[in-house]
Design brief:
Largest sheet: 2 strands, parallel
Number of domains: 1
Oligomer: single chain
Number of strands: 4
Radius of gyration: 15 Å
Helix content: 40-55%
Strand order of the largest sheet: 1-2
Shape: globular
Strand content: 5-15%
Length: about 180
């Protein structure tokens, strides 16, 4: 399961474990900026998964420069590029490791483009020959946030990329459904 952060991961993990899935978490988030934010999210996820005794695969390095190159001049469609980068890499890793399926914690956020995430996950699954689990975790979002606060998780204030950080100061928040 691709994980963006512990606050989003906790209810996704619980739901999939209740369904009987054996999970391995995967950290690949080249979009997160600045590095201190990247590190805070990654370290909180590491600590939470260690408590659960759940394995974590991590892509090494801070990928801001490759992310910015990928986004290029098309900042308005940056979310599609970001989903593609992360989900295709997750599918590739799942295939290389022999996993049956993959999913992402991005599917819990009411602030993300759910349908685009699902389509991107399905495209990645087709390319790499693994199954994508398109769960709608959004009904669990508030419970996940509550769980995160109760457990003292680091709680971010924006999606992760430099553009979403900018928008949090200049635009009102909009929930996408």
């Amino acid at each position: 399961m691709h994980c963006c952060c512990a606050p989003c991961a906790n209810r996704c993990i619980a739901a999939l474990q209740e369904e009987g899935h054996e999970l391995t978490a995967y950290w690949y988030n080249p979009n997160i900026h600045p590095f201190t934010e990247f590190r805070a999210r990654r370290n909180t996820l590491r600590e939470y998964l260690a408590e659960l005794d759940l394995p974590l695969l991590e892509e090494s390095g801070y990928g801001l420069r490759p992310f910015l190159r990928a986004v290029g001049e098309d900042f308005e469609n940056r979310c599609a590029v970001c989903y593609r980068l992360r989900l295709f890499q997750t599918a590739k890793t799942a295939a290389e490791r022999g996993f049956d399926a993959f999913t992402t914690t991005l599917l819990i956020s009411p602030y993300q483009q759910h349908d685009l995430i699902v389509k991107t996950g399905q495209d990645a699954a087709k390319e790499y020959g693994v199954t994508f689990l398109p769960r709608d975790f959004r009904p669990l979002f508030r419970d996940g946030q509550t769980f995160a606060r109760e457990h003292g998780f680091y709680m971010q204030k924006y999606c992760g990329c430099v553009f979403s950080e900018e928008e949090r100061y200049i635009k009102p928040k909009k929930i996408i459904r």
